[in-house]
Each structure stands twice: as structure tokens, then as C-alpha cells.
Amino acid sequence: MTAQISFKAMTLYSLFSILIFGTLNNLYVSFFSIHRLDRFFQKNNSDWESNNPFDSFYRLHKYSFLYSFGLSRPKVNKSISLWLYFSCFSLSCLWASLGLAAAGKYFDIGPFS
Predict the structure, then answer these.
(1) By CB neighbour count within 10 A (0-12 exposed, 13-18 middle, 19+ buried), where does 60 fall?
(2) pLDDT at position 112, please?
(3) pLDDT of residue 49
(4) C or N: which end of the chain has fewer Cβ atoms within 10 Å?
(5) Furthest-apart CA pair in the chain: how many Å?
(6) What are phi and psi of 62, to 5 degrees?
(7) Neighbours of 83 (CB within 10 A)
(8) Which H, E and C letters describe 10-78, residue by residue?
(9) What local confidence, expressed as pLDDT, does residue 10 receive?
């Protein structure tokens, strides 16, 4: 019984840490470092891109999902590649947890119903 509780706790803590570190990564990219990824990916018109954090957050989604799923793979170094894979994984965890919370609220199930 204690092994199951510790496994559940370890799973919960790892998911929580992924969400925290992923959110911090996403905020950092959205506010400060999207230009590091812009130079590797093709942009239609660079004059139309804004420095708005919401636009940067959209481009982070686009770049990380396109790179991780193999639809657009520019030549990047290993650290940028790892950064893109982690961004894709953390964004997927973030949206999956938000989707599960919304489904739980809609169907009135879960611990907060």
C-alpha cells in the first residue's frame, strides 16, 4: 500500500514540477528569447511579427510543435533542440491538464465538484 502511495506521490510531484518548470520556460521565451528561435525558422514577413508576449507564445507553440513532430526541422544545435522538445512536452502537459480540468468542471466530476 505504501509503495502505491509513494508512486502516486512521485507521479504527482513530477507532473507538478514539469508544469512549473514548463510554465517558467514558456514565460521566459515569450517575454525575452523568442528571437533565438526566430532565426532558425522561416518567417513569412518579419515586419509583421510583433514583440507582443501573446504573439511570442503563439510562435513558441508553432516552432516547438513543428520541430517535435518533424514537420519543420531546421538545422539547430543540440541545446536548442532539447529546448524545443521540452517546450513541446511542457505545452502538451499544460494543455492536457487544462483540458482535463475543463472536462471535470463540465461533467461535474473530480475533487473540486
Answers:
(1) buried
(2) 62
(3) 67
(4) N
(5) 60
(6) -60, -50
(7) 20
(8) HHHHHHHHHHHHHHHHHHHHHHHHHHHHHCCCCCCCCCCCCCCHHHHHHHHHHHHHHHHCCCCCCCCCH
(9) 85
Angle of helix 78-106 relative to helix 2-28, nearest 10 degrees, comes to: 110
Q: Give the Cα separation of 90 and 20 in Å (integer).
A: 9
All cell numbers assigned to 80: 536548442
Residue 50 cell numbers, joined: 510583433
> Can you give the length of the chain in residues?
113
Tens-place pLDDT, residues 69-112: 998 888 999 999 998 999 999 899 889 988 988 888 888 887 76
* Per-residue pLDDT reduced to its tens digit, 12-62: 888 889 889 988 988 898 888 888 888 888 666 655 667 788 888 888 899
Q: Are 61 and 91 in contact (CB under 8 A)?
A: yes
Tell me the three cell numbers of residue 73.
526541422
The secondary structure element, H or E, covering residue 102 is helix 78-106
The values of phi and psi at residue 13, to 5°, are -65, -35
